[in-house]
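Possible race condition, two jobs.
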Amino acid sequence: MVIVDYYARLDGPEPLTGLDLVEPDVGFLLALPGNEVSGSGREELRAYLEGRPAVGRKHTVVRQSADGDLEMVYGYITEGDGRGTGSFTSVALLSADKKLLRYQSFFHAGFNIFPLPAGAAA
């Protein structure tokens, strides 16, 4: 799945290679606690990614589904110290070239469908 590959790249040694999987005119919404980041275009998404603090976070996808050009994932985030900080649900509409055309992600620290990893913050 493209969205799973996107997260793997974001978490890898060269996070900006995730942008290779994004259309130049991508539309996105990232709903974070107390903040929403939205925009259009690969460069706006790049600016967001470059502005994130370097904490060694990791996206772990625990469920995934695809129906034609729509992909959906559910997972949790861990920080560099292994603490789970919350869960996310993300949806992507793919272009004909199998790149992210529309992308939205919702992160919540307090409500999780599945338990966070052992020893993680609830």
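Job #2 (started ~2 s after job #1):
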Amino acid sequence: MKTYLLSPATRQLALIGGVSCLVGWVVGSASGLQAAALAAAATAPATTPAAGPWPYPDSLDAVVAAPQFHRVLFENERVRVLEVTVPPHTREPLHTHRWPSVLYKEQTGRGRYYDATGALVHESTTPYRKGPDLVRARWQAPEAPHAVENTDEVADRFVRVELKQ
């Protein structure tokens, strides 16, 4: 197997190209994706109130409450694609994610996950990982108010495809 060393700019272009393909697939196959999302949601643990309207204010939306960490790459009535970057030794402000999503991890390391009260919910002590040992994509249910802290020496980087419909 060949190994290619890419410059940061080339990696960014590759990531954007991959996200563009993913968005095209999501938009182009919404009915199949919706069925898969519903099936995944049925087995995924709930992290938000079960039914009814979204109970949290729009001011807690990730893009509004933590814009320095969440950048919109693409948005329409069906999906919103976010680039999420949490620099080393940094904690995001409290925020929510209203829609179920698929998270694609570019790289990740150690960190902490806090609930709305600031209580520590989970701590990852796994050192920085990138490459084949990293689980790249996973389903994520909507998330109630939370904050993520990166306690590692490298930035956490994700692409989050939120399914609005």
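The longest strand covers residues 79-86.
Logs attached separately.
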